[in-house]
Amino acid sequence: MIVPVILAGGSGTRLWPLSRQLYPKQLMTLAGGGTMLQNTVERIATFGGVGDPIVICNENHRFMVAEQLRSDNITPGAIVLEPMGRNTAPAVAVAALMAADKDPSSLLVVLPADHYIANLQAFHTAVAVGASYAKKAALVTFGIVPTAPETGYGYIKKGPAADGASTDGNDVEAYTIAAFVEKPDKKTAQAYLESGDYCWNSGMFMFRAGAVLDELTTYVPDIVAACRKAVSEGMHDLDFFRLDEESFDACPSDSIDYAVMEKTENGVMVPFDGGWNDLGSWEALWDVGERDTHNNVVAGDVIIHDVKDSYLRADSRMIAAVGLKDHIVVETPDAVLVTPRTMAQEVKHIVNHLKENKREEALSHKTDYRPWGSSESLIATDRFRVNRLIVKPGEKLSLQRHFHRAEHWVVLSGIARVTKEEDRFLLEEDQSVYIPLAVPHRLENPGTIALEVIEVQTGSFIDETDIDRLDDVYGR
Known about the structure:
The chain is of the alpha/beta class and 476 residues long. The protein has 11 helices and 30 strands.
């Protein structure tokens, strides 16, 4: 049985302002019909003989991950919540421990949730080749056949051809691993490309659960010990499995490349040429996007004149551009990015500046996605805020109270069930209710369509920390 392990952590800061810490790129629709997470799970599910995926994600993203899987009719084997990031070696160790507990011979295929792959058949062929080696206790990594002298990727140097490099009549070469190489400069990357001896390091792997645990135990026993304790002392919470925070916090941070793949004698690389991209930058999105006759990729309400070789995306307002060449322009409701394509990687400096100055734009969008729906900030001042709430059918907010702010709800569409102290009643369109300070209250949607509400908050201190939850079906 092949068990997909989907690595869905990370913040995707190089795609700011679209990708934010609380709503990262893997949860967005960037290329293809679904979100990056959904596309990753579907891509391996169609291979055949594949079990329910183990999805490893940040605790802050748990409800969005669960909702995206549910809406795509995907039943996860587990949604594992990392209390803090510890890189890929601990994530693989956790997944291997959970899979090996059921079947040590399970084949784990480890896939980051933010990859784009154009050629599905080529991907499936590579997985079949990888499985043939993983069944023999090899630790397989998938190397991307390079198409350009990229300096943003690590490289893997091919060793001698591996034995038995074919499966089911597919004659695809596989190699032992001579070396892992750090991101090169342009001249070195060009030499790698011309030699034909190097592949990009994709961060995708395949191995038996028991085999990778053996190698992890050999090379990084402290990681295995910490992860074993984090799993054994973890707990199930609704649809999620929470790793024990204290145990996982004590786990060293390391990548599976450094921890095992660079040291093991059982490594095999399967080259893969299938239109791969990790969509880690705006330049990458321009690479994979559908271009017009002037080589532009355009999304949203965009009007251009004499613009060439550019990427322009509008999410909430019109973008008008004249005379641009080789530029990135991205508009969101609260931020606009303008940069030459050659400088797109430098957006990380903007994100760092925002974080240092504790700006909300580094963390979240004006629309905040909640397990019950979403809250969009329309107006925000020190004394009042106006939000647009969308509550999904059958969902409810927590029973809560506030000590520094009052709230006024106006129903725009749908039917609301309101709890106000001991009273419970329904509100229809154009009806409203006032919630004074310190009064317990709850908003629910008992209907079959989305409930849309305007919420006005007023008070001396308006902040999300001023919430005293008395009851919450989501365990927050």
